[in-house]
């Protein structure tokens, strides 16, 4: 009888613990689909200043989604997204928006396939599961480390 009671008690404890774990664990989607709505954030940028133009809920453009990704070694700039509590939600690599590349026939033999530009229009897409409150723009230094250089808070 003791063994049966012990087994029933153990199953009861395990089921309560499992329910608590399931309720606390939420998976958030990190990538945006072109057929689903998302927060689309637009910036006007120069090499030393980013200005938030607008944030809208709409379907992102496919061509913009191709450019958006997590940070990699090729990115010179990144946008960190934080919520109201200051928790980092996602970091998006935006490459180097101040270097325009051209891919036209006839330029393949050139040493450089682009050149610097002074300003850029940047759009990023954030899944609706996140509620962005603060954007921090970071720039990679010569050592390869990102340094935060501008914070933009949503009104």
Would you kindly provide a written description of the structure presented here, covering whatever features stand out?
With 155 residues, the chain is of the alpha+beta class. It has one domain (32-153): Immunoglobulin-like, CATH 2.60.40. Helix content is 19%, strand content 39%. It is built from two helices and nine strands. It has helices at 2-24, 62-67; strands at residues 38-46, 49-58, 77-82, 88-93, 99-101, 114-116, 119-127, 134-140, 146-153. The protein has a four-stranded antiparallel sheet, with no helix packed on it. A three-stranded antiparallel sheet has the order 2-1-7, with no helix packed on it. Strands 5-6 form a two-stranded antiparallel ribbon. The longest helix is centred in the N-terminal third of the chain and has 23 residues, at 2-24. The chain is elongated, with a radius of gyration of 23 Å. The termini are far apart.
Coarse structural class: alpha+beta
- Averaged pLDDT, please? 83
Q: How would the global form be characterised? A: elongated
Q: How many individual β-strands?
A: 9
β content, as a range? 35-45%
Tell me which CATH architecture applies here: Sandwich
CATH topology: Immunoglobulin-like
Helix content: 10-25%
Order of helices and strands: HEEHEEEEEEE
Largest sheet: 4 strands, antiparallel
